[in-house]
Amino acid sequence: MGGRRILVVEDNPLNLKLVRDVLAASGYDVVEAHTGEEGVDLAGTCDPDLVLMDLQLPGIDGYEALRRLRRDPRLEEVPVVAVTAFAMKEDRERTSREGFDGYLGKPISVPALPSQVGDFLERGRANGR
Fold first, then answer.
1. How far apart are CA 71 and CA 79, in angstroms?
2. Number of domains in the chain
3. What would the DSSP string read from start to end of 1-62?
4. 59-62 long-range CB contacts below 8 Å, 24 or more apart?
5. What digits encode the pLDDT tens for the residues 8-67?
């Protein structure tokens, strides 16, 4: 499980610290971005195995950041998981329809996060690319 690189795109410093600390303690290499634009730029250079993308970000939102990531051939195989406090069924359906490979609701479950990330890494891209 450990040693894989996870790009976390999150503008809330407390949420970012929580996710970073939990994943780092589980052996993951965590790269941080604070805006959608920064996340897109870093994804192109840090070679992530998985991207955890907050949907509400300053500048471009998580949906636009995902669209930009999907235009980069280097990132075709990288699963991108939506992370959001919006937990209604319609929100989950929209993330799937927009092309996210998974969904994590906030607040993040600290005990479950490492295994959830492991599951996303194992499954890969939802559309089977």
1. 14
2. 1
3. -TT-EEEEE-S-HHHHHHHHHHHHHTT-EEEEESSHHHHHHHHHHH--SEEEEESS-SSS-H
4. 59/35, 60/35, 60/36, 61/36, 62/9, 62/36
5. 999 999 999 999 999 999 999 999 999 999 999 999 999 999 999 999 999 999 999 999
Q: Are the CB atoms for 26 and 1 separated by under 8 Å?
A: yes
CATH code of the domain in which 42 resides: 3.40.50.2300
Domain range for 54: 5-111
Q: Are 64 and 72 in contact (CB under 8 A)?
A: no
Q: For residue 49, give the nearest of 23, 71, 12, 87 by alpha carbon.
A: 23
Amino acid 69 reads L
The verdict on residue 121 lying in a domain is: no
Residue 119 resides in a domain: no
Token pair, residue 43, equals 């994804």
Q: Is residue 16 a part of any domain in this protein?
A: yes
